[in-house]
Amino acid sequence: MTYSYYPGCTLKNKAKELDYFARESAKVLGFELCELSEWQCCGGTYQTAKNEIAPKLSSVRALADSRKSNQDLVTLCSACYNVLKQVNAEISGDENVAFKVNNYLKADGYEYHGETKVIHYLEVLRDTIGFEKVKEAVAKANGGDIKNSPFFNKKIGAYYGCLLLRPSKVMQFDDPENPEILEDFIKALGAVPVIYAERNECCGAYTMFEDEKIPQNRTKKIITNAKDFGAEFLITSCPLCRYNLIKNQSEEKLDVIYFSEILANALGIKGGLDA
Asked: How far is 228 from 271, CA to CA, in rounded Å?
């Protein structure tokens, strides 16, 4: 199985672990991520204004590039996933936006109308590979017994944040109020998911540029809540969430790790990253 792959900017610098361990895990699980030959930053946030067309074009070009290969487009970063999927939905559902977008694309000699399917890496694990197969691969990598997994019976909290789940009608990633995909992923590694109230609440995101107290307060609630329910550490797929949750910890502290890193660890993948 081969997918087109959009890594996004942060996975090439500050979040190399998210990218590297996902690629290596994919090899073990039997699928391949083929990075788009030319891609640009998605912009980091979705522009809701209907007349803001130019900021969406980098996402459109990535989507169109994936269409050439007749492959679904996979991404890992929560923000990239959110932007790509919302842009795609807008183009396929709004003729006026599609018209304006394609006026820009005329110079490149093609049109795009939302044909590409955007999926998250976690959706590949859930919907194509299957978490039971992931569990079998983890057991195989650990002497044939899931109890030998480095995460067996570890209490792990999933941190979804906002962008994977909302707006729910467009994202259709999971139930926005009671998601299960990361908890099922945690179970597949032999660990115990910790269900806590703040797991799908905002970390403060870009409000840190306006008022640093907002992410500080949000982080305190998230970390305290997760610890109160017994979490030994948190996992996420969002580089910005991870940054905020680590940077703004005070007396209450928890490690925050990319989901792909613990997947790779559970699959026995060795090796590191280039400096």
From this structure: 34
Query: Are residues 80 and 66 in contact, defined by beta-carbon separation less than 8 angstroms?
Result: no
Q: pLDDT digit string (tens) for 125-183?
A: 999 999 999 999 999 999 999 999 999 999 999 999 999 999 999 999 999 999 999 99
CATH code for the structural domain at 2-120? 1.20.1050.140
pLDDT tens for each residue of 234-253: 999 999 999 999 999 988 89
Q: Are 2 and 71 in contact (CB under 8 A)?
A: yes
Where b means 16+ CB within 10 Å and e means fewer, 147-169 reads eebebbebbbbbbbbbbbbbeee
Asked if 23 and 31 count as a contact pair (C-beta separation under 8 A), the reply is no
Q: 33: which 2 tokens?
A: 């991520």
Q: Could you state, in order of their start, the residue ranges of all structural domains in the chain?
A: 2-120, 131-266
- Pairing state of beta strands 255-258 and 192-194? unpaired
Highest CATH level, class, for 131-266: alpha beta
Distance (Å, whole) CA 52 – CA 21: 35
Residue 84, phi then psi, degrees to nearest 5: -60, -40
The Cα 212–Cα 22 span in angstroms is 31
Let me know the angle formed at the C-alpha of 189 by 183 and 195, rounded to the nearest 5 degrees. Answer: 25
Q: Nearest-CA neighbor of 101 among 111, 93, 109, 116?
A: 111
